Amino acid sequence: MVEEARAGEALFRPVRSGNPFEETVERLLQSIKLGVVGPGERLPSERDLAARLNVSRVTLREAIRALTEAGYVESRRGRYGGTFVNTRLPRPRRVGPKKLAKELGDEWGGGHQDALEDALVLRSALELGAAEAAASRSLGADERDHLTRCLADTAAARLTDYRRMDSRLHLAIAEVSGSPSLTSAVADVRMRLNALLDAIPLLERNIVHSDEQHQQVVDAILAGDAPAAREAMRLHLAGTAALLRAFLS
């Protein structure tokens, strides 16, 4: 489909020189964890992936082998073979707030509070802009269907799948903004955000509220109301930010 191709274009972009193996693993994990390639679905062929990522087939195979050993994918032989995402994915690593604080401080060269605020500010700048840009465009039928399908999948998701489908919806909003660069940036910040979210519990009332806010964002985008889309997204992100600050500060 058109929108799935856009997501692949954004996430399976050429890796930078210097760390081809690590960045290939990162790109593949993004596509899985953000729901672009779902459980049971097949990744693009090795030839296609190697060309799109601009890496050698050897590097790609090493990355796929690493993800196989980690439990994310499996390789199948035969006419309908290829590399498939496992139907059951590894559970996110649960990290307590104190340990996460140390990891964030080590990774970003400062205090964990600075790292948290950095991620939240970046997310707000990107996703408010994405919602506004999406609502400002004249969306085609495929784009509208893609957005409503991702919304429905998120609302119907099981608790264990919720964060992945939530990520997929937010990525879909970036996709229909029409900017692959923005989609890539949203994917990157979402991976950072998910590391934070995995350290706090999923709250049922918050999920219900998030679903309501998702509906408001999508309705505003489909209606072409850019100010309303931006405001609905602002309120939605503010709720998530409040929970993260409450649990991790």
UniProtKB/TrEMBL annotation:
Keyword tRNA-binding set for record: no
Pfam families for this protein: FCD (PF07729), GntR (PF00392)
Keyword Transcription: yes
PANTHER family: GLUCONATE OPERON TRANSCRIPTIONAL REPRESSOR, TRANSCRIPTIONAL REGULATOR, GNTR FAMILY
HTH gntR-type domain span: 18-88
Alphabetical UniProt keywords: DNA-binding, Transcription, Transcription regulation
Gene3D superfamilies found in the cross-reference section: GntR ligand-binding domain-like (1.20.120.530), Winged helix-like DNA-binding domain superfamily/Winged helix DNA-binding domain (1.10.10.10)
InterPro entries: GntR_C, TF_FadR/GntR_C, Tscrpt_reg_HTH_GntR, WH-like_DNA-bd_sf, WH_DNA-bd_sf
Name by which UniProt lists this protein: DNA-binding FadR family transcriptional regulator
GO molecular function: DNA binding; DNA-binding transcription factor activity
Superkingdom, taxonomy of origin: Bacteria
Classification via SMART domains: FCD, HTH_GNTR
Transmembrane stretches, start-end: none
